[in-house]
């Protein structure tokens, strides 16, 4: 079959699950090159089922583990089967990546920034070694790229946030970083300045975008990295002007920041805000407000239209007796399956539940879900097409590319 | 009025007749017919007679459009041998019969998806073109990923 034309080989390979593709890369040199072909990448991406990537790190239990971490954890890909008659997560992960194997990840903390088209952006930090690095990783081809260090590293790491996305106009992948600094001008009082810089894959350097024009501050308590949807990254920020608008976006085409409509403000007595977070549910932006007593999920039906925010579901704490109520950690919506269930996991996922929109907690949790919850401390990166094949070669061609994490 | 018939010739010079209105499901044949009326024999130098017979059997199917998907799937399922499927996919590619090619490729993918590296090589008769040293270097590099 050596005369099998490339077109046919690509077509067949693009129908294979990720795990087999990794294997097939090693069949021969020709296939190795085919799997790197942009034609294959696009075809495979379009044919792959949706999946999740779960960052499993059992060792981080205490705050000091962040400073003296033992193990960066494992990335696991989980496929979502959401057919007419079957809705479940395949918890026997199609593949997993043990981050503790590459020597340069030892004893560091790995945090996910986001994922786009199957590429994952990871941030590595180790306070002990004063080390901060950003990686772009393709879990399918097992290729990694180390981004250059930022021009201005901030040691107060509570005050910088990242976002990872792709420009719909140019197809360029970008990492955006906003950071807050205190500057003393003319011997006066120190002033807070919020600046941004962007890294376009392939350019080899961070580019400053200058001060951020939108009036907001990074919220140390709600600090999480940007959620990419519709060409924008979304962050929850501090509402400086008391307008109850506390979402900010970055446009990956125009490279500008805008404030973004929040769900309508509701003053509810005897509810104490615990946590706010953003997620994607059925392709729509959604905001999760966790209170002492309940969890509210808002969904924005039409992206950017304030009036389209509506309350999708409210889950009262008393119905979730067997669920450890989320405290200060954010909740990440994993998926709304077509049979109406929504699944969610918590960062410290000792418990995980799926529930019906009409507020009845399922008493019999899908066994596969239970296995997942018992086994994994999870950190949901985002919804991610498992097929996950985007080849970096196209977008990044500089000396940092192919930085090998593993040197045996 | 009798329907117009075309003659296709396989790699091993066997001739096959097929009605024109069925043959033009192949975009390649349709274009040839448009260009020169395809009055003479259409040579298919890359398709052997066994495969061509299968293609003709497929083109001659009398299926309602809504049953077509199932039919194609069943058609390739019944010919579950990888070499046959690859020949079929190759012919469908040359003749530009999209549904048949999709189904054949899907079937091959299904068959090899749980294969090991060595089994894939064997099934598709691909020679490993790396030296054992190169092989080891790559294994070492990627070992953490398996």
TrEMBL record, chain A:
It comes from the Eukaryota. Residues 1-43 form the F-box domain. PANTHER family: BNACNNG10540D PROTEIN, F-BOX PROTEIN CPR30-LIKE. This is F-box domain-containing protein.
Automatic annotation (TrEMBL), chain B:
The keyword DNA-binding does not apply. Part of a SCF (SKP1-cullin-F-box) protein ligase complex. GO terms for biological process: jasmonic acid mediated signaling pathway; protein ubiquitination; ubiquitin-dependent protein catabolic process. Involved in ubiquitination and subsequent proteasomal degradation of target proteins. Together with CUL1, RBX1 and a F-box protein, it forms a SCF E3 ubiquitin ligase complex. The functional specificity of this complex depends on the type of F-box protein. In the SCF complex, it serves as an adapter that links the F-box protein to CUL1. It comes from Centaurea solstitialis (yellow star-thistle). Belongs to the SKP1 family. Pathway: Protein modification; protein ubiquitination. SMART domains: Skp1. This is SKP1-like protein. Pfam families: Skp1, Skp1_POZ. Residues 98-145 form the SKP1 component dimerisation domain. It comes from the Eukaryota. PANTHER family: SKP1. Keywords: Ubl conjugation pathway. Residues 5-62 form the SKP1 component POZ domain.
């Amino acid at each position: 079959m050596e005369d099998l034309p490339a077109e046919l080989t690509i077509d067949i390979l693009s129908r294979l699950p990720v795990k087999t593709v990794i294997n097939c890369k090693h069949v021969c040199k020709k296939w190795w090159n085919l799997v790197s072909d942009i034609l294959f990448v696009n075809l495979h991406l379009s044919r792959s089922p949706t999946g999740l990537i779960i960052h499993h790190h059992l060792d981080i239990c205490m705050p000091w583990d962040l400073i003296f971490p033992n193990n960066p954890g494992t990335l696991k890909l989980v496929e979502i089967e959401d057919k007419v008659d079957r809705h479940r997560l395949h918890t026997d992960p199609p593949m997993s990546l043990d981050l503790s194997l590459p020597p340069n990840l030892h004893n560091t903390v790995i945090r996910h920034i986001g994922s786009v088209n199957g590429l994952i952006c990871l941030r590595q930090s180790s306070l002990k070694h004063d080390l901060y690095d950003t990686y772009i990783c393709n879990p399918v081809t097992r290729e990694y790229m180390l981004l250059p260090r930022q021009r201005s590293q901030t040691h107060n790491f509570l005050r910088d946030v990242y976002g990872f996305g792709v420009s719909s106009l140019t197809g360029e992948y970008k990492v955006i970083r906003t950071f807050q600094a205190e500057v003393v001008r003319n011997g006066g009082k120190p002033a807070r300045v919020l600046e941004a810089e962007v890294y376009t894959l392939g350019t080899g350097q961070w580019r400053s975008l200058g001060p951020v024009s939108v009036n907001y501050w990074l919220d140390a308590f709600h600090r999480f990295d940007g959620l990419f949807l519709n060409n924008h990254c979304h962050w929850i920020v501090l509402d400086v002007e008391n307008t109850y608008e506390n979402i900010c976006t970055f446009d990956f085409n125009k490279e500008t920041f805008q404030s973004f409509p929040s769900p309508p403000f509701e003053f509810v007595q005897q509810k104490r805000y615990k946590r706010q977070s953003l997620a994607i549910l059925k392709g729509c932006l959604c905001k999760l407000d966790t209170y002492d007593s309940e969890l509210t999920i808002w969904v924005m039906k039409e992206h950017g239209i304030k009036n389209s925010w509506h309350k999708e579901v409210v889950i009262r704490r008393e119905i979730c007796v067997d669920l450890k109520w989320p405290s200060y950690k954010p909740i990440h919506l994993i998926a709304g399956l077509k049979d109406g269930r929504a699944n969610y996991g918590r960062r410290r996922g000792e418990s995980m539940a799926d529930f019906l929109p009409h507020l009845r907690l399922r008493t019999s949790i899908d066994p596969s879900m239970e296995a997942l919850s018992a086994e994994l401390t999870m950190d949901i990166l985002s919804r991610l097409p498992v097929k996950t094949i985007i080849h970096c070669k196209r977008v990044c061609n500089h000396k940092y590319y192919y930085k090998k994490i593993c040197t045996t | 009025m009798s329907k117009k018939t075309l003659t296709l010739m396989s790699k091993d010079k066997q001739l096959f007749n097929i009605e024109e209105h069925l043959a033009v499901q192949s975009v390649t044949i349709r274009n040839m017919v448009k260009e020169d009326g395809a009055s003479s024999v259409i040579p298919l130098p890359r398709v052997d007679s066994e495969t061509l017979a299968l293609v003709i059997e497929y083109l001659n199917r009398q299926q309602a459009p809504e049953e077509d998907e199932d039919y194609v799937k069943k058609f390739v399922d019944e010919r579950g041998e990888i070499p046959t499927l690859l020949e079929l996919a190759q012919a469908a590619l040359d003749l530009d019969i999209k549904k048949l090619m999709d189904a054949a490729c899907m079937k091959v993918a299904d068959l090899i998806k749980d294969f090991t590296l060595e089994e894939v090589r064997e099934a598709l008769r691909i020679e490993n073109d790396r030296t054992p040293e190169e092989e080891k270097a790559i294994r070492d590099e990627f070992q953490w990923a398996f």
